[in-house]
Here is the input.
Amino acid sequence: MLNQENLLPRLYEILGPFTKEGRTLNPETQLVADLGLDSMQVMELLSTIEDDFDISVPLNIVPEMKTVNDLADQISKLVVSPS
Amino acid sequence: MTLFEKFKPILAARQTILEQGIDPFKLVVQEVISPTEAMINDRRTILAGTNNYLGLTFNPECIEAAREALGSQGTGTTGSRMANGSFASHVALERDLADFYRCHSAIVFSTGYQANLGILSTIAGSGDVILLDSDSHASIYDGCRLGGAEVIRFRHNDVSNLEKRLTRLGERASRTLIVVEGIYSMLGDRAPLSAIVEIKKRFGACLVVDEAHSLGVLGPGGRGLAEEAKLEEDVDFIVGTFSKSLGSTGGFCVSRHQELDLLRYVSRPYIFSASLCPSVVASTRCALKVLQDTPALRERLWKNSHELYAGLQKIGFTLGPEISPVIAATVPSKEYAVAFWNGLIESGVYVNLMLPPATPSGLSLLRCSVSAAHSSEQLAYICEVFKGLYEKLKT
Here is the structure.
């Protein structure tokens, strides 16, 4: 069963290529404000997440995904009840 | 912190572009000479970025039709069709479109942008799903945002990715609207319609094809990709614009579903926008007739498209994956694109400078659109200028 706790390590791995060297990730890391992702990088990240977790992420919930924790939260919901 | 704080990155980006020359997004066309020529920066300039595919903006019959309507019906309608009523010419244009597409219903909108807003925000509502190609035009994305449906992207022209997403939806697949484009506006490639139709039928979904860049361009009758692929019966809604091949402004939707007519009561972009001016309606009706009566225009357009594509390819540019009147040269960076574009303007050639995030996959593009009205000499000159700048900027 996927939950936020066991999702986070996998998310850190996925976020690796999107993170500047030396930057440490934690659940409160903000995707735009801290990692500096632009809109296209956010879409690229979501695409990787969709493939990895075999889910479809609706664009409607993207504005709610501000932190790594938000990502984990939404992914766990989508894995339980897929779109 | 002020309201304007959020514009700082835009200001910085604009400054970078301005340092390299003129602002490409504030270009002033001082005088229009013909469908393919204008005065820009006091220089006679070839227009190769105006989507004027059939070159009908100066068609004498269309101009005369617009002039006559202007004299007899006035300059504008001063309101929406819901509030002010429809002019007989609005209804006639809708009949023309329905006949042209051999469909039951047609609705005309005030712009192509609004056609997508009006259709997508209304057809798919709360509890429904929209599956859109990731390279879709901004009007498609905005139309989705305006409605209440769940919106999911699939990878550009990736049929197996679309299928995977429909599978994940389970029973909701039958309440899904798939949205694709006939010719994609950035790279000029087409949707793989036959495979998409097969999937949409299998899952019981509905399909919208935006033929904005393919009306007048594809199909033996110029009706677009659905006609070319012989799949018109399988497409639920066709959306399009008058501002490209038909040389005016406005948008439309046609459908074999009679329910399309009900959108007039619920589609906010339709209800709350002023309707098309009579002169615009008149020139559009005339252009639609010219499009049907003059297949030679389409032949000329394709001959020109092949010519420019081959010319740019020979220079060494990476172009879109297939030949179409939309020919985009991919260049290495934003800075290179801006410098190249400035060089084109200084040499009297206008194309579209397309920068991320407005482009697919973060590409920087010099996007040309070919017209049936371009002469071989003009196309040769465009290639000559591209070649000169390509060599110059290589060093």
Observations:
- The mean pLDDT of chain B is 96.
- Chain B is about 45% helix and 15% strand.
- Residues 75-293 of chain B form a domain with the Aspartate Aminotransferase; domain 2 fold (CATH 3.40.640.10).
- The CA atoms of residues 70 and 279 of chain B lie 5 Å apart.
